[in-house]
Amino acid sequence: MPGRILIIDDEKDMLVLLKRIITEETDYEAVTESDPHRALELFKANPFNMVITDLKMPKMDGMQLLEKAKEVDPNVTVVILTAFATIENAVEAIQKGAYDYITKPFRRERILLTISKVMAWQEMVRENLSLRQALAQKESTPPLIGSTSVMKELFERIKQVAPTMATVLLTGASGTGKELVARAVHQHSLRGSKKFITINCTAIPEQVIESELFGHVKGAFTGAWKDKKGLVEEAHEGTLFLDEIGDLNPNMQTKLLRLLQEGEYKPVGSLITKKADIRFVAATNHNLKADISEKRFREDLYYRLNVVNIDLPTLKERKQDIPILAYHFLKKYAQVNGRGIHEISPEAMQALMGREYPGNVRELENIMERGVIFCNTDTLKVKDLHLDREGATFFPEVSEDVARLSFKEAKDKMISLFHNQYIMALLRESGGNISKAAEIAGIQRQYLHRLMKEAGIEADQFKQKAE
Ligand SMILES: Nc1ncnc2c1ncn2[C@@H]1O[C@H](COP(=O)(O)OP(=O)(O)OP(=O)(O)O)[C@@H](O)[C@H]1O
Ligand SMILES: [Mg+2]
Fold first, then answer.
1. Residues with CB under 6 A from ligand 1
2. How far is CA 455 from CA 102, 128, 415, 422, 459, in A?
3. How many CB atoms are located within 10 Å of the residue 67 CB?
4. pLDDT in tens, 280-321
5. Which of 117, 264, 267, 295 qualifies as a FRET site for 428, CA 20 to 30 Å off?
6. Looking at the DSSP assignment, which residues form a beta bridge with residue 53?
């Protein structure tokens, strides 16, 4: 079911604007209502994923609406819209259980970011339930986490190909989960109870890879004291995972082709041909087609391996999975380290969702592991994550600090933060033109000047440089 969002504001223009943004940019349905009482009736009658409400309205203010909505559904996610003048009430609303607040005027991206955060969060809560059920059924499978449509397609594909004998070639960038998928293919196959053997073609030195794979007989070379079984024999009736297949040398490529085609191999130094009953799964982050045209990889071997290709998405292509993955790793490392960390602060989640992951899931996992080690409360915060500059949040740990301040201190802090962020956003929008910025904000040019001076912001840095 696509998500539904209820929007309440006494200004009709605002309703039109929000509805347009949501309809144009998301798959969610937006229902708008200018009368808070009627909105509440709607809310009682129909389920909504989230409520976005204005704070200052004549008949019933957003705070009351929040309280009433919470009475109907304690889990409802409410986002407050507020003008700068009522920012302190917005902070109060957060304390009363609102999820977040957005100051008016807002940028399109700001509202969309909040919506996607809320929806990802809800999806995660839902998926977590079905995941736990799935896990109970298959304890031994390392969980492959993901609830985005690309991941659902991936799960479908795994289920389809797993029970066949088809060789699977897994492609995808580093850290996208190729090894995990290889294991899943094995687990879901009819060989699931047999062995899953991995050979890493990069890690094993060229001189020994043949004997590692095929085994050797006594006296085959110096140091071969006795017969030794190879990994192919180990994997008999099970699955052999050929990791980093793109790094296999040409001589071994030829021998592997024979194994794939005839199911036959010879241990090093042996004259006897052996038979193998093996399911093959291979993985690479090379572009094998390019390797073929540069004669580094045998084309016939490629076609043998690539009976079914599964290409793994990068984390960038499934950003909405970040919350569910982050919670998965939080749980894992909290358990490993014996720590009672149960939550990720919204700011930390925003920081995690807002950054790039060249190392994909592995990188996210490493960040979470580090975060658990540095965290000394029950909630993981931005500072625990030790992110680089690009990973910094738009709004620094406001909610955390605010809770320890007096009302006045908190208010001053929120206002100065708001000034900074808002003025910078305005100047970015106007390309450093103060008059234009003041016009957008609906304030006097001199007043904006004064605010800029107080915040230590200069217009120059926002002016477009002539190329
Ligand atoms: N969908 C996922 N759910 C849970 N954990 C995942 C997922 N994808 C990857 N991981 C975790 O991320 C790490 C990297 O995954 P994996 O080793 O399978 O990547 P890879 O594609 O083989 O990377 P490389 O090409 O660098 O070998 C592992 O610790 C794995 O458990
Ligand atoms: Mg790997």
1. 144-146, 172, 174-180, 285, 361-362, 365
2. 21, 44, 11, 11, 12
3. 13
4. 999 999 889 999 999 999 999 998 898 889 999 999 999 999
5. 117
6. 8, 80
Helix (H) or strand (E) holding 106: none
Ligand 2 center to 438 CA (angstroms) = 54
Q: The dihedral of CA 430, 424, 392, 148: what is its sign?
A: negative
pLDDT digits (tens, 9 = 90+) for 398-448: 555 566 677 777 777 677 777 777 888 888 889 889 999 999 888 888 889
The vertex-109 CA angle with 105 and 115, nearest 5°, equals 100
Long-range contacts of 378-381 (CB under 8 A, 24+ apart): 378/340, 378/341, 378/342, 378/343, 379/341, 379/342, 379/343, 379/344, 379/345, 380/330, 380/341, 380/343, 380/344, 380/345, 380/348, 381/345, 381/347, 381/348
Pairing relation of β-strands 279-284 and 168-171?
parallel
CA dist 410 and 403 (Å) reads 8
Query: Closest Cα to residue 324, out of 156, 176, 147, 99?
Result: 147
> How many Å lie between the centroid of ligand 1 and the Cα of residue 243?
13
**302, 263 contact by CB (below 8 A):** no
Which is it for the CA torsion 334, 335, 339, 344, positive or negative?
positive
Contact call for residues 385 and 367 (beta carbons, < 8 A) = yes
Give the Cβ contact number of residue 35 at 10 Å. 15
Q: Cβ(230)–Cβ(215) under 8 Å?
A: yes
Cα 50 to Cα 61: distance, rounded to the nearest angstrom:
17
Neighbours of 258 (CB within 10 A): 14
